[in-house]
Amino acid sequence: MNEFEWLRQMRELRQPMAPPERLWHAIDASLDDADRPASATPKTARRRLMAAALAASLLLAGGLAWRMHLPAVGDTPAPLAQADGAWKPDDPRLSGAAIELDAARMELQLAIQQSPDSPALQRLLDRTRQQQAQLRQLAHQAS
Amino acid sequence: MIAACPATGTPMSPAPAGANDTDDVRAAAAGDRQAFQRLYHLHVGRVHGAVYRLAGYDHARAEDLTQDAFIRAWQKLPGFRHESAFGTWLYRLAINVALMDIRARGADPVRTLDDEHLPETGETPFCAAEREELQLAIGQLPPRARAVLVLHDIEGWRHEDIGRELDIAVGTSKAQLHRARSLLRKALGETA
Fold first, then answer.
1. Domain range for residue B50?
2. Which among A128, A134, B76, B108 counts the fewest CB atoms within 10 Å?
């Protein structure tokens, strides 16, 4: 039997298999005892979040410093409604900050899903969105 | 041919490709047990099938491993980042649970055959073997060789991925596959 024929026959063994009905009940009962870090953001995730927020702030500060050297082109603000979408400015000097801020926003949104009542996380998210809006405004003015 | 042989166990339809389970995944991550039950029913066939094969077609052990996999999935769901489909994530998690079980059993394989103790009965060529006979033979392979054979030949994994998952070199994975195929052919009476 050649390799192709062997594999063809072996792959036919790859079938979904239904376990007995009682398995779900056993799993369901075990979930009560399953230790789940659901209500609080895990410490590692929180640390990552803080690091991302810090990095975003530093990048934004860099962007603002860079902005000081640009001539004022106009004061038309970028629409805030765009703040939640993935956005990459044409200017490579701003794109790093945009990526960091977007990553921080997504991390915060995930964390808020896990801890919807956390005012600290909500404040961080609001601040990140403000920073994204500021960055868009900078990019708009620069272009 | 194997394809014409009657199947054993309770095969079932796979989860629909691209099943839209995103809402249930989010709800289950937030603690919704009913959403998790829907995810279980959608994906358990694929998970249990793979685990059953890795467990050497041992029903009791496969049930334990499937249960363990879903409990771990429930625990890890809040950290699921939607970077892959939930079904893929769950499948990999379940495979990992089954492989950890094999590693944990280490050098104490249960009901395995080795090269010296292969049955010499039967002249049936592999292509005529019934599915049940084939499954029995796979189930009696040494656990690590069986894991490589199942992952490569049945599940369609690459040696690089198998090596990473089993923490072995690619060459070792290839050697284990060669050994597993030889043992299997011998067990089925084929003169390869």
1. 23-105
2. B108
Residue A40 near chain B (CB below 8 Å): no
Residue B28, domain CATH: 1.10.1740.10
Q: What angle do CA B138, B171, B127 make, to 5 degrees?
A: 30
Judge whether B10 lies within some domain: no
Percent of chain B topping pLDDT 90: 62
- Asked if the C-beta of A109 comes within 8 angstroms of chain B's C-beta atoms, the answer is no
Task: Mark yes or no for CB contact B126/A9 under 8 Å.
Answer: yes
- DSSP bridge partners of B11: A17
Choosing from B105, B140, B175, the residue where a domain stops is B105
d(CA A138, CA B99): 52
3-state secondary structure of B33: helix
Tally of domains within chain B: 2
Lookup: tokens for A7: 């594999």
pTM summary value: 0.59
- Give the C-alpha separation, B185 to A29, whole Å: 43
Please indicate whether, in this complex, the C-beta atoms of B67 and A30 are within 8 angstroms of each other.
yes
Interface confidence (ipTM) of the complex: 0.76
Could you tell me if B183 and B121 are in contact, meaning their C-beta atoms sit under 8 angstroms apart? no
- How distant is the Cα of A3 from the closest Cα of chain B, in angstroms? 10
Which of A17, A25, A110, A114 is most worth mutating to test chain B (most B CB atoms within 10 A of its CB)? A17
3-state secondary structure of A38: coil
Cβ density class A79-88: b for 16+ within 10 Å, e for less: eeeebeeebe
Phi and psi at A127, nearest 5°, equal -65, -40
**Spans of chain B, pLDDT less than 70:** 1-19, 106-130, 190-192
Q: How far is A123 from chain B (nearest CA, A)?
A: 21
Instruction: State how far the Cα of B50 lies from the Cα of B149, in Å rounded to an integer.
Output: 12
pLDDT of res. B25 = 95
> Quick check: A107 pLDDT over 60?
yes
